Known about the structure:
By secondary structure, the protein is mostly beta strands.
Amino acid sequence: MKAARFASPRINFPVFLKAELVRARFASTCRFAAVVLLRLALAALLAVGVGSVAQAQTAHFFMSESILPTPTPLYYPAQVAVDTKGNIYIADQSNYRVAKETPEEGGFVETSISTGTGLPYGVAVDQSGNVYIACENLSNLIKETLTPTGYTQSTFGSGLYSPTSLAVDSLGAVYVAEYNGLMVETPSGGSYVQSQIPLTNARGAFGVAVDSDFNVYITGLDFNYLALFGS
């Protein structure tokens, strides 16, 4: 992959990125949080055509905001993902689970996924509805494979150090932002092959997103810019 760095004003403590439509953010306190659904116009999203970080930082989004309490209070929620059916997946960190919120008229039906396996920080969902989870206190990843009766859990990857953010592309490759950089888990048969995308600043990758052209966008706590890896 070819790396590029966006020329931009300094970005302080960049965290998560989404290359797709952003459908949710969080308003949280120490003991309670509510999911905030945002309907955003995509004209100025960086990953789909905005020319610079400066433009993205000054872009005007047209939105309507609704604070929708989840059936169970969230406790330090982290990354969020949305599937093609509008289901919302929340890494509900200190409740030791991923909360799946299925839209229903007047609210949500909630399902807990991967309960009690660690401190989930990153979550992603693929086109088939399979859920990928990164726990900050685990050195591997969790995959919850969707079945007609629920989910089947498996683990993959190894040697990860404080993974924080996940993204999955249309071919099922999983991109993992972790302390040592950016790892890629590529499906191969019934398992995954791990590789690493080298970063100019190798430590502190924190947010990752991938677009439909397989360009990968990375932010980190140790580098105050947006990195792009693509053709």
